[in-house]
Amino acid sequence: MKKLLNTVYVTTPGAALRKDGENLVAEIDGAVRARAPLHMLGGVVTFGAISVTPALTGACAAAGITLTLLDRAGRFQARVEGPTITNVLLRRAQYRLADEAALDVARSFVVGKLSNQRAVLMRALREHDGDAPDRARMEATTTRLAHLARRAGLGPLTLDELRGIEGEGAQIYFSVFDALIRSPDEGMRFSGRSRRPPLDPVNAVLSFLYALLTHDCRSAAEGVGIDPAVGFLHRDRPGRPSLALDLMEEFRPVLADRLALSLINRRQLRSADFDRLDSGAVILKDDARRTVIEAWQERKKAERRHPFLDETAPLGLVPHLQALLLARTLRGDLDAYPPWLWS
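^ thats the sequence. predicted structure below, dont judge the formating
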């Protein structure tokens, strides 16, 4: 069990969580390995075969502590939470805008994502000379991403056309992603995005980080009282946190992709840190998963100036700040949702 900020991550297979007084207790093979006061926690995230007693589940729900269950690969399985106190007028505004003017908000999510993808590539071009073919391809990609961002923000579009622009941006961005990998480990090459399941180590790291980011964005949405299931860019689907997926789009390149590249390029993750399942899926081994979680929390502590608020804040708070700006947009306090742009 690892406590980072106000979230407990439980990664050891076979661990058992129970309530002892006003504490969460983690046991392995009947021996107590960790203890944390419930009043200090905001969330509990488990990976794989972890048992949780009914008493602890009830205590977490009553205390407003979210319990998120992920599988070994980091894919979302379930979320347990108690009654939530929400602003009904804010949610009515959200539902109305999602039905009548989703494009207006969805544009900002896509512009933010495309701009931040471009910023990641531009940073890589400044940091590494690279060979001529790679550099030319990356420069061409940054130019195309800039064009797509302008079209997404200003062009006459339908919502489906906007989704097509987002998809094209993702395709060309990941087409040059391998050029950003500097590790000599041949097992850590990237030949294209694969999901459900990830088919290589790089995709396994990306998918795992995206699962953590989804958790944080869902918590951010709920924290300001908006419904994480009703989005603007992503279509509604039972069990899908569409708004959380909307919010995370602008953060993927900076919070997740750059962290994955850092872990690989610094050789903190190597091909030996992954298991390949009979299904073909590739997943992180337990020790490597802990390495990623610790790096993820350290990454969230890094501070950046928020371009709209003009204030410095930890990266881990940015999803919460953006959720707050989205709520202000829904209430009509802002004319448009301002995406978070990294520089």
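Residues 2-80 form a domain with the Ribosomal Protein L15; Chain: K; domain 2 fold (CATH 3.100.10.20).
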